[in-house]
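Archive transcription. Copying these from loose printouts into the bound notebook so they stop getting lost. Printout 1 of 2:
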Amino acid sequence: MTNTACLRAFLCSVAVSASACLAAAAERPPNIIIIYADDLGYGDVGAYGATALETPEMDRLAREGMRFTSAYSTSATCTPSRYSMLTGEYAWRGDGRGVAPADAPLLIPPGSTTLGSILQEAGYYTAIVGKWHLGLGTGNLDWNGKIAPGPLEVGFDSSFIIPATVDRVPTVYIEGHYIYGKDEEDEPLRVSYRQRIDSSPSGQEARDTLKMDWSHGHNQSIANGISRIGWQTGAESAHWRDEDIADVLSSRAVEVIENNKDRPFFLYFSLHDPHVPRVPHERFVGATDMGPRGDVIVQIDWCVGEINRTLDRLGLTENTIVILTSDNGPVLDDGYKDESAERIGDHKPAGPFRGWKYSRFEGGTRMPTIIRWPARVPAGTVSDSIISQVDFPATFAALTGRELQENEAPDSFNFLPVLVNPEATVREHVVQQGIRNLLGFRRGDWKYHHPSNANTTAWETGIDLGSRPYPQLYNLAEDLGETNNLAEEHPELVEELHAELEALRAAGRSRP
């Protein structure tokens, strides 16, 4: 079946009448926007029960689209989730796909099949704006020359990115293959994670001068009054001001939409909030009673609103698929003293779930996920079907009629049927990766934790990673908080789930 025929078939399958089906066949393919928050928890959004802050723009997406209650990132940390979402392969299948330093080489081999390349082949203009964190170059990167390979070599037509995380150096944007905004008179940018190259006072030495104090780590080079992980010198004119990042990224995302309004486009809008350091723009300071973490969630909502308002203004809302989700679960103290724990009050960032960022408990990987497509997805619907971000490549390949080969997107399932019927089942199981490659395995209502002797907590955060030297088994239908270990009561089920997980590992794929 051709790309166009496949798309028409799907559109017709959800049309309410023959005339509507005929009209749908004449439409252009839908635009696609993924809004990817960083460390946003299941309980941080009004549509998922948050009451301590207001998120009207995210809630609007839920009112006008489908809200998922069992949607997952593949990992409880950022780099592996992003890798899996773009490639359709669980990151734990390969080495070197953990949390990447900013000077890591590109983790996705150039020319690989990715979500971006699939949509490029279908005639989409593809763009990434925001956090990348999947490595750049091939090693020993010269930040002052051509920075490649990167997003442009793995399926994107344009890129405006934060190289890694905002708490790491370098504190510069990369546009295409080059540092954005660097003055020719600046000293060259130098970056090191191995030895000190910055003679200026560090965050440890000049702690009393910082606009935000650090609690652990994050005490090396200072930029914009905030100390970071790693050392950098040079390119002073190109350094970002943290307070402006959301505005800069949103304006770039709006430009992508405006410049491509007359053709199908895919925008991967990758926010950095509410990741640390949490430094909201001045107009959002005090927006909540929870301090900077609450304030930057309101700032996220404003960013979502910028997308909503732009689509409305250009008449693109009806036929644009907007996906709102997050790379992993929430965290409070993640290296800076921003009172996130002290001012949390009754707010529950992970909602009803146990666990946080870094953890294989549900709170680490079960994500707020909303999909709005007014032309085809019924408004105000809720789906309990299990889906994962690793499913994006297969889903959009199916939408465009692209048949995946055996070695492409090996863990990606097509969840288009769920958008037609929210009760449809497209996958029975999902693998969840915590830090240190701790794996959890959900099949139906049962959740199995593979035994591990790894450290039980994550660094100074004290977060329980779920590591135990014995198996854990939870019935999520009765125990969302994963508090009652039923492994001893159901040894045969433990053995069955363990064998199934090991078989998925050995097979190198899980897609049928």
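Printout 2 of 2:
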Amino acid sequence: MTERTGPTQLRASHRTLLRDAGVYLVTEESLSGGRSSVEVARAALEAGVRVVQLREKEGSARRALEIGLALRTLTLEHGALLIVNDRVDLALAVGADGVHVGQEDLPVNVARMLLGPDALIGLSITEAGQLADADAADADCLGVGAVFPTGSKADATDTGLELLARSRAATTAPIVAIGGITVANAGDAVRAGADVVAVISAIAGAADPGAAARALLVAVSEARAAGAAGSVR
């Protein structure tokens, strides 16, 4: 699938940053072991994570705004992207680099109209039929999953690795694997077609979020290297 109109230079560079990031932190203060999402994000960014998504489903909109403003400062300091889950208004309020929308949220083209041509718009893919939709063609990246069983999203449907492989065959856009990602299975997601793995609990719920982020980055890097070596043979 190809995008109907080409991305701006800034958006194209942000797509590249996202594709190369390896690990994508999604915040959720209620799953952060008593720490703030800002503390967790700081540790992850210092470890090398370069994409943070503001999610915060459990708290108030005002608390999400406070967290988002702090995350915007942190991500700018580290040359990282800030994406907001679902909420276009919140993305505008914090000056985020884009939003990630689900199948029941605003269409991708409407979100882009509101946020402007430089905004990254990600789209959740939960079944193969959605890959042929206009939204998928217009999105800057596809968030595929839940790849593995997850406790972070109560209504998530397990999609397995097959949907990652089908998504990879259907698009050249960056693919983000989400749902139950751990150090042990991150490589499987990359080998199945993901460019990036998105996590909440694997970093936010870890005893040492920074160490957990580094371990995930290593797992993704090793899987990429093994894939590249295999393609040369």
